[in-house]
Amino acid sequence: MATTGESGETPSRGKRADARRNQQALLTAAAKVFVASGVDAPIRAIAAEAGVGMGTIYRHFPTRSDLVIAVYRHQVEACAEAGPRLLAEAESPFEALRRWVDLFVDFLVTKHGLAHAMQSGGGGFDALHAYFLDRLVPVCGQLLDAAVESGEIRSDIRAFELMRGIGNLCVGRESDPDYDPRRLIALLLRGLRRSGAS
């Protein structure tokens, strides 16, 4: 029979929870480094950001493609979960949409290096892309619907179109440090505003 600690958790359950937290911290650190330096960033930079040894990263993610795929999935989930939270927190639905687009752009910067990191544009990447669409198009749609209902934006834009347009504006960011797509994306969002919306 398993014994419980003072917290009421069995030691193995507590250990699994710690391992999950450590892995999430690694993924968050890797995402931050990938956004700043691309998916070819040195593993030691990720280890330094996470405050762990390189051996810890390789224990969780034996290859770079394992790490990049895990970061991709982690960022998709973070974007998906952020939509409803931002709608509840932001001062307006349009502000929630704007803040969500910022997160989405961070994600896209990482996404554009994914196929190269996997050294293949084949089935693995295709499955991840389908996962990305299944999780994020409905969230973007929810944000757009809320902003339309509040009278802040026009109603003639679909979630997939907006995401595709933002994605196209982000192409080339990783190879040109002088190009910042956020300025153009801000103009795109401004173009959605209804006249008279504050």
TrEMBL record:
Biased segments, Polar residues type: 1-10
Domain HTH tetR-type: start-end pairs: 20-79
GO molecular function: DNA-binding transcription factor activity; transcription cis-regulatory region binding
One Pfam match: TetR_C_43
The name this protein goes by in its record: AcrR family transcriptional regulator
Feature: DNA-binding region: 42-61
UniProt keywords, alphabetically: DNA-binding, Transcription, Transcription regulation
PROSITE patterns named among the record's database cross-references: HTH_TETR_2
Family annotation (PANTHER family): HTH-TYPE TRANSCRIPTIONAL REGULATOR BETI (PTHR30055:SF234), HTH-TYPE TRANSCRIPTIONAL REGULATOR RUTR (PTHR30055)
Region (Disordered): 1-20
